[in-house]
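## retry 2 of 3
previous attempt timed out at serialization; input unchanged, resubmitting
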Amino acid sequence: MNALSRKTGNGFLQSMKRPFCEALKKTDLNVRKKIADFVVEANLPIGEAFSQLHLYTPDQLPEIEPGQFAQVGVPASMHGWLRIPISIHDADTERGHVKLLVQKVGTGSEWIASLKKGDRLNLILPLGKGFSLPASGSAEALAPSPVANFRALLVGGGAGLAPLYFLAKRLKRADLPFDILIGARNKARLVLANEMAELGPTGICTEDGSVGFRGLVTGHPLWKGVSYTHVYACGPTPMMKAVAVRAAESGAVCQVSLENTMACGLGACLCCVTATAEGRHACVCTEGPVFDARALGW
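## retry succeeded, writing output
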């Protein structure tokens, strides 16, 4: 969910300070969210475009759900006073450990990806609404499908695999069956394929056929071999829309994680809004980033 770096005028900055502060005051940071300094324990490069940051804080962390994100502080000289939203790749809240998968798409994200062991990074987390699980017991669980019949397909590519990795770990811990489907343009653009395969059965699609099935994720044989009750998707919007259509055709519930550009991450600036099937505009950073695809009219 890396936001593209962009120049911001002083007038816009001044107009944004008040709603940002008001939104921050209304946010219960002590219970549900946390502002904390993290120490970089490791920075592992993944190809040319990604880095996996392993972070630690001694502070007590709130519960973090797969699909939620963090607002990451960067030097003001690079990104104004705005933070950069990045999906939480993995988390062990009891031990104070968080992982971020950082895609280098601008000066701010490149700075984050260049951090070394011992450097510090300030995060606000967890933000947004994550994926719902049938075992969560919440009103937004993935019913009506009974847990006994549950089988999920996780579909993603690029930075979209960050929250799906966390989700796969949670499903595995809950002993819920799932398969994974990764899409990429070619072998050079594959991310986390080995890590995902360690968690569950994984299919790979490349558009040029350099690895795995040649074609798009919606054409992979996995769709024909198994009857999925739920599909989780994160990645490029055209891919997610196509996956949502494919899921609907098979009668599966589909949840998608949007990657809209964000500024405040707290619902104050409204630059991340997306249209819904009801004709209104939902704030992705607070009502999402995870949505039922049907609610978006997909």
